[in-house]
Please model this.
Amino acid sequence: MHQQGTDRRVNVAIEPHKARRLYLLLRDEISSGVRAPGVRLASEPALAAEHGVSRVTVRRALDLLAAEGLVLRRPGSGTFVRHGASARPVVADLPNMLSALIAMGRASKVRLLSFDYLRPPPDIAAALALDTDERVQRSVRVRMIDDAPFSYLITHVPERIGTTYSEADLATTPFLELVERSGIAAPERAVQTISAALAGPEMAEALGLGIGAALTTMTRTVFDRDGRGVEHLQAFYRPDRYAFQFDLLRTGNAGARKWTPADAPRADPGP
Model:
């Protein structure tokens, strides 16, 4: 009896991983066009038999696809691949990202989740080069296009700048526009790092993903002309809805050619 109870607990623990695996398999088939828009997927019992999983696992996988807008579930009729399900994600040009942020802010909607004034963590204070005991304005936002969430944004701003705008302003106006409008600091330079992360519970819920889903992350610190920190941003993106692009050119002399960012100044190749 004890062994059966242990086996049952193991099966319960493994099942979500099976659902995630089936979700990823079906998602790849939809994105690649193997399962065309409008096509009806096999029934839950058929999918369960085909992939050697339970119907509960199949249902969880289909729920994930439906939450992502890839399939449409019709009670009594089945599950169908949605038209436009494989639409390309928003693409951001890395070299010109700062100049494009205001345009992106105007083209998308934002949902403000939190807005507070507090003491920053040591790493944030160091990144912004804050004075001792200087507070920050912290906000958490979700940005959406066509009512679909694609980014989760955590922003820390020095209090001297944060007090120049309200919660309503931040929910309706691009941040860099608010900073420039404040007259306190003009963004002059930024340092960016791109990496990857896994979605925690709150982030996963806000982005319409499962806990542990893979995300693309960008950490950016913006400085004014005097080298003072203006903004520290931690951005988490759904990789299926947002991508980074970097255009490169082949430059240099024969034997010393290299790839150079398209917008970067080119060195004089000489005579």
User: Anything to note?
Assistant: The longest helix spans residues 2-32. The two ends are 85 Å apart (CA to CA). The longest strand covers residues 187-198.
